[in-house]
Amino acid sequence: MSDKQKKPQKPKARLPRGFVDRNAADIRAVNEMTAKIREVYERYGFDPVETPLIEFTDALGKFLPDSDRPNEGVFSLQDDDDQWMSLRYDLTAPLARHVAENFNEIQLPYRTYRNGWVFRNEKPGPGRFRQFMQFDADTVGAPGVQADAEMCMMMADTLEALGIKRGDYVIRVNNRKVLDGVLEAIGLGGDDNAARRLNVLRAIDKLDKFGPEGVKLLLGPGRKDESGDFTKGAGLDDSQIEKVLFFVGIKDYATSAADLAALVAGTSKGGEGVEELNLIGALVTGAGYNDGRVKIDPSVVRGLEYYTGPVYEAELTFDVTNEKGEKVVFGSVGGGGRYDGLVSRFMGQPVPATGFSIGVSRLMTALKNLGKLGQDEVLAPVLVTVMDGDAEAMGRYQRFTQQLRAEGIRAEMYQGNWKKFGNQLKYADRRGAPVAIIQGGDERAEGVVQIKDLIEGKRLAGEIEDNASWREARVAQIVVPEAELVEKVKEILAAQAEDRRRAN
């Protein structure tokens, strides 16, 4: 066997598809966002809770009895007692399990929020990841639609807290019961019509994309797109189509509520749904959110089998340029609704619940488009350079570093090859360090330090290339007693901050 064959194979450094590494700027942007979201949720009286990343697969409702491995949309593994577990695919199913398991200890209504990573075992694509972050708020144990109306108002407040202006977003509200009532009124009630109902809902969901004429075709015989591809329609007749289009075309709910009530009269839950929408409308109006922030909009279709009452969607209404260079409305950044059946499936008794989920990554993209993130600039650390490697000198450099940190100043002591001083300055330059602290043997003997304002130095002398040019320039550099080090650094950082403020 040759030496070549004996060599162990090095693993290839590579990421699985659908996953990304996040850099410091993205992590800070998410932290900035989530802090603002958390502040609004806390103000509404919600408390945090955290569940694990992994749950038993049947608790997630994802186990397929005819499959030897439950991997339909989830990443799964088997425990040592042969029980299947999966990475959570949302934050709602784990909350339902948590509530059911701790039902006797939990105070209802249970108002809680949480944010964290969720995982989808699906084919990744542009903008579609297998790991992404959600931020949810839920109220469990409140049967009235007051809880739903409050979710919508809280979502509006959250978007504004993140810097999205009034008029650049809308929280759109519908009710699953009304939707079901309309379908029942046109003869599509009952289990036999489940597939046709699904086709109608899918057609309604395309209203923003294709407009009323396109949806009319999808509700009827079908629609051919520009490429010639044909999508089979739901096969409704003209009278049925007219009623569906009336429903989804309602622009001013207040003037259409009576007609809608007449349309769903006699259906099992349609009337109840209209009453719930009327109450949400009254609550929103009473709180002053009917100024375009929260709007009843019957074209909202979410979670076809998941939701049991009100459904709502947060939509950003400003234009952005997509990857093809076209102007498009940014669209949805989160949504939710009432899911009264989710906790109940563990309990054998009804447990009402409603909740909202924000897609953190998608919302972050929107905020970057608006220039609303990264406003709180994080300064690079002050660099304490190393001129001598003996223990006494090193002890002093470490002391300077700790003194700066103790006063809340980011600082680091150089930890590379200190013998080439030019490398330290290049490192400070690459890091964007605002200040360098220098103390050689002569300064040490006198009990002083040199403080170099690197930002001012660049401005006066151009980019510092090497040690020689730095020595020649000798700009923006002062010598102070060791005891005055921290105060003088604070002064320089304050002056730099003022320069930045003026420049902006």
Automatic annotation (TrEMBL):
Location(s) in or outside the cell: Cytoplasm
Xref: InterPro entries: aa-tRNA-synth_II, aa-tRNA-synth_II/BPL/LPL, Anticodon-bd, Anticodon-bd_dom_sf, His-tRNA-ligase, HisRS-like_core, HisRS/HisZ, HisRS_anticodon
GO CC entries: cytoplasm
EC number: 6.1.1.21
Chief place where the protein resides: cytoplasm
Span of domain Aminoacyl-transfer RNA synthetases class-II family profile: 31-381
Keyword annotations of the record: Aminoacyl-tRNA synthetase, ATP-binding, Cytoplasm, Ligase, Nucleotide-binding, Protein biosynthesis
PROSITE patterns per the UniProt record, alphabetical: AA_TRNA_LIGASE_II (PS50862)
MF terms in GO: ATP binding; histidine-tRNA ligase activity
Catalytic activity field: tRNA(His) + L-histidine + ATP = L-histidyl-tRNA(His) + AMP + diphosphate + H(+)
Pfam families given in the database record: HGTP_anticodon, tRNA-synt_His
GO biological process, one term: histidyl-tRNA aminoacylation
Chain residues that bind L-histidine: D90, L91, T92, R120, Q134, D138, R302, Y306, Y307
Family that this chain belongs to: Belongs to the class-II aminoacyl-tRNA synthetase family.
Quaternary structure annotation from Swiss-Prot or TrEMBL: Homodimer.
Protein name (database record): Histidine--tRNA ligase
Species this chain originates from: Allorhizobium borbori
High-level lineage: Bacteria, Pseudomonadati, Pseudomonadota, Alphaproteobacteria, Hyphomicrobiales
